[in-house]
Structure formats: structure tokens, C-alpha cells
Design a protein that fits this description.
6 strands; Double Stranded RNA Binding Domain; alpha/beta
Length: 151
């Protein structure tokens, strides 16, 4: 059953989504997350998204706290990794700038994405960046749903 979208007060017509802060060692993850969240709000709501918090009714801030990768499965014959998992931990907060109250907050937002590693050297390429982009879209979709729905 869907919620009623009651988390966002009716007077919030604009939300600023400034670039997330990146405290991890992963290059550009904050840009992908910020862009994905902005795009998700644009596609799913009538709320206007602005870049400047001074021109918004609410502001959604995010901090990428950690990005980790680990092996999920190995090839038993070669001992090489076949599946890796990347995990992003972030803190997000949506604050109503009229009342200064937090509309939504999660200091330990964790998302994971698995991806396959090519076993042939001729086809070897880095798959972690596309996995992070997919993870960014999934995180944005879930985050916006949680903000919009009142469960």
C-alpha cells in the first residue's frame, strides 16, 4: 500500500539538492548521487529542484561517508574473483527551511551493487564505475520513495 506523501509539507514547492559531500576515496560518486537524486525528483514529483538553497523551501543534503568493494564469489579453478560487491554508505537529510525541522533523515544509508568480473584478460575492464552509476540510480529511487511516502 502506498503512502500519502505526507512527509513533505504542502508549502514546500522547491527543494535544493546541492552536490553531496564526498568523504570517501571514490572519485565522482558524490556527483553521480546528486545527479541521480535530482533526476528522480524531477521525474516523479511536481516539486521544482533548484541548486541554490537560498531559493528553496527545503534542502536535501548528503554526505558519502564510505565506499567499499569486496569479493562475493571466486572461481574455484583459478582462485580469481568472479563477483564483486560495492557498498556505499551515506548520510542524507531533508530540512524544511521555513521551520528548520528535519523532514527526513538517515545517517546510515547503505546501498550495495554486485557486478561480474571478466575472467579473460583480453576482455578485462573496470566494471566498478558502471556499478556505482547503477547503485546511484537505485539509491536515488529508494531515497525519493522514502521521502515521498509516509510509512
Amino acid at each position: 500500500m502506498a503512502g500519502k506523501g505526507a512527509r513533505i509539507p504542502p508549502d514546500v514547492k522547491t527543494i535544493a539538492v546541492p552536490a553531496f559531500v564526498n568523504e570517501s576515496n571514490r572519485y565522482r560518486i558524490e556527483q553521480w548521487l546528486s545527479a541521480a537524486v535530482t533526476q528522480e525528483f524531477i521525474e516523479r514529483t511536481k516539486i521544482r529542484i533548484v541548486s541554490n538553497p537560498a531559493r528553496a523551501d527545503a534542502v536535501l543534503t548528503g554526505t558519502v561517508k564510505d565506499v567499499r568493494a569486496g569479493v562475493v564469489t571466486f572461481d574455484l579453478q583459478t582462485g580469481r574473483a568472479t563477483t564483486l560487491q560495492i557498498q556505499v554508505t551515506a548520510a542524507v537529510e531533508l530540512v524544511d527551511l521555513h521551520t528548520r525541522k528535519t523532514i527526513f533523515g538517515n545517517n546510515n544509508y547503505v546501498f550495495r551493487e554486485e557486478y561480474q568480473v571478466s575472467q579473460t584478460t583480453s576482455e578485462l575492464f573496470e566494471e566498478d564505475e558502471p556499478a556505482l552509476k547503477r547503485l546511484s540510480r537505485d539509491l536515488a529511487r529508494t531515497l525519493v520513495t522514502e521521502i515521498l511516502e509516509n510509512f
